[in-house]
């Protein structure tokens, strides 16, 4: 029996900037015409995924106070992303190490 590689999953959502700009023009006629174009370009330089951009723009369109310039602020910084939970044994060991360091602040631990 020959093993066939699993085909790559479809790349979704697919970028659809033109359609998103058309939707924004209809949904938010109060936005300056090129403001979202500029915001999309900035989002790309901040390495936002298309899925993240799509969700963030939809939220901005739904928010009466939302502005295209707020899009880049929706880009999460790496240090703000949630971390996976530690295995309980590791968490307890690290907690013990921290407690020991607090009791003896002048001792270094590796």
Please characterize this protein's 3D structure.
The chain is mainly α and about 110 residues long. It has a domain at about 15-75. The protein is about 45% helix and about 0% strand. The chain is built from four helices and no strands. It has helices at about 15-25, 35-45, 50-60, 90-105. The model has no long low-confidence stretch (mean pLDDT about 85).
In short:
The chain has 110 residues and is mainly alpha-helical. It contains 4 helices and no strands.
How would you classify the quaternary structure?
single chain
Global structural class: mainly alpha
The Rg value, from CA coordinates, equals 23 Å
Strand content: under 5%
Mean pLDDT: 83
List unreliable stretches of 5+ residues.
Answer: none
């Amino acid at each position: 029996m020959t093993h066939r590689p699993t085909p790559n999953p479809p790349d979704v959502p697919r970028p659809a900037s033109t359609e998103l700009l058309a939707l924004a023009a209809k949904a938010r006629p109060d936005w300056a015409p090129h403001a979202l174009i500029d915001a999309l370009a900035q989002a790309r330089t901040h390495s936002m995924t298309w899925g993240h951009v799509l969700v963030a723009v939809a939220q901005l369109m739904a928010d009466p106070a939302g502005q295209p310039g707020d899009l880049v602020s929706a880009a999460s910084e790496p240090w703000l992303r949630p971390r996976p939970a530690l295995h309980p044994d590791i968490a307890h060991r690290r907690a013990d190490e921290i407690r020991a360091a607090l009791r003896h602040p002048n001792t270094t631990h590796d």
